[in-house]
Design brief:
By secondary structure, the protein is an alpha/beta fold. It contains eight helices and eleven strands. A hairpin with a 6-residue loop joins strand 8 and strand 9. It is globular and about 50 Å long.
Length: 249
């Protein structure tokens, strides 16, 4: 399907299930963490309702749609990225399954309701407001730093949106793992599954995936680590399967 592109935009292949995605070097493009979160999250297969917070250009809803027939929604605060995500839905002819909303996630419970989603996902900004160098590009700064929302905002809102027994899944940096666990429990989301992602064998983890259940009972599973690169610098077989499916085998 032909979609109007703005200056600087391009259409990339998502590599999985022939999805395509509009991106631009002027805004923050999706990266491996979004792909891993979209595969890690536990989803209803045939029906249900899923919300992706901080959806950016809509990459996670696009990827989730390859694993579930549930209704998928995305919420993005930046108008430019909201527009891009909306066009990505049309580009992939997924209007019947995916809906992208413009707005502040902190207002989401009042807007969409409490306990209405089966699954909530989020790949939030990783960096605290006054840490590291803040990019002069507003779109990059908002994606990387907690400017419009904090980690607590993300977890609190996710807990309010998801139903009792529903699941929330996040990807973040390992340095914030304790904060995440404490905040999840504060808002009655019990951590159930954790997986560390390592760039290579013997290296420290640089990402952590965590999933919890609203009103769940304590029973944490620490999953085997995911090693991204083999010794020769190529993607490990699991990464190839995540990115390419059967085509990577």
């Amino acid at each position: 399907m032909e979609i109007a592109l703005h200056p600087s935009e391009r259409v990339d292949d998502l590599l999985t299930h022939d999805r395509k995605i509009i991106q631009s070097h002027e805004v923050f493009s999706f990266s491996m963490d979004a792909v891993l979160l979209a595969r890690f999250a536990s989803l209803p297969i045939q029906k249900g309702r899923i919300m992706d917070l901080c959806t950016g250009n809509g990459v996670i809803p696009l990827l989730l749609s390859t694993r579930s027939k549930a209704k998928i929604e995305g919420l993005e605060i930046q108008e430019r990225l909201h527009d891009m995500a909306s066009r990505n839905v049309v580009l992939n002819q997924l209007e019947d399954q995916i809906k992208i909303y413009l707005g502040d996630l902190k207002e989401a419970p009042q807007r969409f309701g409490h306990g209405v989603y089966d699954v909530v996902t989020c790949n939030p900004p990783y960096m605290l407001p006054k840490t590291g160098e803040v990019n002069q590009n507003e779109h990059f700064a908002i994606a990387r730093h907690e400017i419009y929302c904090t980690l607590e905002d993300v977890i609190r809102v996710s807990a309010y949106l998801v139903r009792s027994g529903g699941k929330v899944a996040f990807v973040h940096r390992p340095s914030r793992l304790i904060d995440m666990i404490e905040l999840m429990r504060k808002y009655r989301v019990e951590p159930k599954r954790i997986r560390f992602v390592h760039p290579k064998a013997g290296a420290e983890a640089n990402m952590v995936l965590i999933e919890g259940i609203r009103d769940g009972k304590p029973d944490l599973k620490l999953l085997p680590p995911l090693i991204v690169y083999d010794d020769d610098g190529s993607y490990c077989p699991e990464l190839l399967e995540i990115y390419y499916g059967e085509r990577g085998e």
